[in-house]
Amino acid sequence: MNTSSLSIYSSTEKSEELVFQGTSLSDGVAIGIVFLPKEKEEIEVPKFAITADQIDREIDRYRKAVALSRADLEHLQCSLAGEGLQEAVSIIRAHLEMLRDPVLTDEVEGKIRRELFNTESVFRTTMQEFLVQFSHKADAFFQQRLVDVMDISKRVLGHLRKDPKRALQEAPVNSVVVVDEIDASMTASVQTRCIVAFVTARGATGSHAALIARSRGIPYIGNIDIEPFHRAKGQLIIVDGTAGKVILSPKKETVIRYRKKQYRSMRMQEHFEPLLGLPAETSDGHQIALLANVGTIEEIAMLSKVGAEGIGLLRSELLFSDLIHDPLSEDAQFKLFTKAIFQLQGKPIVIRLFDFGGDKRIPGETSRNEEANPLLGCRGVRYLFRRPKMLRTHLRALLRAGVSGDLRLLVPMVSDLAEMRQIREIMEEVSEELSKEGIPHRIKLPIGCMLEVPSALLLTDALASVCDFFSLGTNDLTQYVLGIDRMNSNREVFYQPIHPGVLRLIRFAILEAKRHGRSISVCGEIASQPLFAPLLMGLGVNELSIIPRHLPMVKKMIRGSAVTEAVCVAREALACKEASQVYQLLMSTYSGSLENSS
Questions:
Q1: What residue segments make up the domains of the chain, in order of their start?
Q2: How far is CA 510 from CA 53, 309, 348, 541, in A?
Q3: Dihedral angle sign, alpha carbons of residues 535, 539, 544, 545
Q4: CA distance 18 to 245
Q5: For the structural domain made of 52-159, what CATH number should be given?
Q6: How many CA atoms lie within 13 A of 187 on its CB side?
Q7: Where is 293: in which H helix or E strand?
Q8: Active centre residues (catalytic)
Q9: Burial environment of residue 323 by CB neighbours within 10 A (0 to 12, 13 to 18, 19 or more)
Q10: pTM higher than 0.70 for the full model?
Q11: Which residue spans within 295-363 are E strands per DSSP?
């Protein structure tokens, strides 16, 4: 939290205080100034050579940029048609026809293959050639096509060069970013010294962007009408992440009230400091291992301040969101993974394999996922299998980094045994390659299975034969069991991680894992809720991986609870018919302890 003083009162006296209610996606209080990231009018187009093995990637970038441009135009066409603007509709139709023209596609893709230059430079050169052709013709038709070419060129290049993270780097200290939406890599890459909160027009509590904001302690409110903020650049703003409230041009007394809230929050952190050196041990002597969920090197450096016993989930894909030059090269991965391991000074670290797909994009990729339902599509291990070179490079870097400490791997989005077997086989092949090349590496690394797809939980007994440990990913598990997209902004009524159906499936997996001698942890956000810690203990969980800043609160709850009571509570919870009954049960049993832990 940044609480540095601001020169605020001169602007607040001139404007009326405006209060907006949205959806709380990450709690906390921030006071700052409105920052509206804007793209430059002139699109910079770099030109650089590519290698033969990068051709497919560049062509894929071109196709996605064209697909996004077509989607933009089709949406615009529908809007114009609805307003009866037929002349404008015909212009948009001409643009769409040009984007669908196989001559353009063949020309661009052919040049990429022959000339081995990046997509942006090839596309711009091709469009400039079309401009030259049309400019030599006096016919009005061709003059109109000249305008069309320029418009389409700007649109496609805009999608190819769109980089919201670059715009965020221009944010001054104490900025509250106001945008339509943010993605996971943007949230992971911001400097909290400069950016203190997010306000977006869209957003869901289950999105990875929201999850990372919570992990990093950045207040975030979504589903706000941001139109009024377009005229408020640089004005004072308060983001109350707990109440889901945004206050624009607050009065002096409002600012003072929220400054006091920030101060109380800072004092609360001091309240937990005596717990740092103490174990997470229940009142009847049962110990729970508390590890951390992280996504950046900066978060790892802070773990000693919260008493984490290691890392239970390192979201590897987020480490590279800031790197620009060849971000996923073997050496870049090896260096970052080794740095993370060294920072833990011998403590265990579980690195989840790249979980691209869904709402998480490869660094440098500007287009959106074109799948109809990306959270049910090609993500996690499925994504990696479709990109074998990326997977092998990833495993090479991890095996090399493994010599530096207690490293374990976690495979995301597993749905059956074949996927785990295939990962093991590829890792063995990669290990043999490294041995032949004389490169130091760990011959084998422990491999865990992420239990987040219902079929995987039902196959826990069988999966135990091909993995070394399990980790329950309750965020995705909940959406798949209950049939609610966790990215949906209207999901709150339906997305219930303590739903009896979810709990019974979790209990089944825990029993099967233990029956086959495999450890099982919980790394979903349910583990970061102090109220749910006794429930998870009662279900048989001995290890939790938690948002770092919530770890002291969870530890305090555990130290004030008894496993014997937790087992009884869990038994009652499993017998409940509704999530509301489970919540009432937990509140009636642990509300006193909850007050003491927050």
A1: 9-39+165-270, 52-159, 288-596
A2: 44, 22, 21, 7
A3: negative
A4: 10
A5: 1.10.274.10
A6: 31
A7: strand 289-294
A8: 208, 523
A9: middle
A10: no
A11: 311-315, 349-352
| Digitized pLDDT (tens) for each residue of the chain, 598 residues in all | 444 334 443 444 456 899 999 988 998 999 999 999 864 444 567 777 888 888 888 888 888 888 877 776 776 566 556 555 555 556 667 777 777 878 888 888 998 889 898 888 888 888 778 777 666 655 544 445 555 666 677 778 777 766 555 567 678 899 999 998 887 667 766 777 789 999 999 887 767 788 778 878 899 999 999 989 988 999 999 999 988 999 999 999 999 999 998 888 777 777 777 888 899 999 999 999 999 999 888 788 888 888 999 999 999 988 876 554 455 789 989 999 999 999 999 999 999 999 987 555 555 444 444 544 555 667 899 999 999 999 999 999 999 999 999 999 999 999 999 999 999 999 999 999 999 999 999 999 999 999 999 999 999 999 999 999 999 999 999 999 998 876 665 656 678 999 999 999 999 999 999 999 999 999 988 999 999 999 999 999 999 999 988 999 999 999 999 999 999 999 999 999 999 999 999 999 998 777 665 5
Tokens representing 481?
């069991």
Structure tokens, 237: 């703003």
Query: How far lies 218's CA from each of 28, 205, 312, in Å?
Result: 7, 13, 21
Eight-state DSSP code of residue 212: H
AA letter at 303 = L
Pick the CATH number of 9-39+165-270 from 3.50.30.10, 3.30.559.10, 3.40.50.620, 3.40.50.720: 3.50.30.10
